[in-house]
Amino acid sequence: ARVGVIVPAAGSGVRLGEDSPKAFVDLGGSTILERCVSGVVGAGIDAFVVVVVPAELVGHARELLPGVTVVPGGAHRSESVRAGLDACGDADVILVHDAARPLTPPGVFRRVLDAVLAGHEAVVPGLPVVDTLKRVDTLKRVVPGDGAEAVTETVDREPLRAVATPQGFTRDALLRAHADDGGLATDDAGLAERCGIEVAVVPGDALGFKITTPWDLRIARMLVS
Ligand code: CTP
Ligand code: MG
Questions:
Q1: What's the 144 CA to ligand 1 centre distance in angstroms?
Q2: Which pTM value belongs to this model?
Q3: N or C, which end of the chain is more exposed by having fewer CB within 10 Å?
Q4: 9 lines ligand 1 (CB under 6 A)
């Protein structure tokens, strides 16, 4: 099968709060984006790679990643993925992998790809949730100045999974998932679910964590040092 990998890297990284967009922040001597693309190539899956970056950084990204297709993204993640999809040529299987998960090990790419090749239309890597989860709402008893919230329920975590990327799809499934505007969807499998496509979960890996906050960047920098 011809495999395409779309790397959405067009976000601004508001929660990280660095000066440059998140994918262009340094992680031990190279950018998060370069690390991520090395990880994709290092997974040994022989894929066509399309990287999606902020419009003003297309030229810079092409210099950082010679030989990689780089296209401009959009305001929402789903728009950026669609831009990547348009540049993906005739791939029959497409993996979508966030630039913000640069330490994802090769085994995760292989498990996701193998599951698509085995016949699943949509596949995500997932891990059990370790924290105790509470649903919250506003407090009835208002105590001035403390900003606390009220617990309304303890959620059963047993049937929950925290999912990551790469998320793998048949070309047809990803096209159907993105046929309508994805709006504020945070992942592609969510769009596939809305179309009635069954999404399979395979084991993820803790190293596939997403760099979202300054704390995550600290951990990532320690891991690569
Ligand atoms: N992304 C994208 N285009 C957007 C928004 C996000 O390609 N318009 C990408 C990000 O670059 C990232 C991935 O989607 O690799 C996951 O998004 P997230 O972790 O939310 O990154 P940001 O949107 O950059 O961060 P924040 O939400 O804190 O601003
Ligand atoms: Mg975001």
A1: 36
A2: 0.97
A3: C
A4: yes
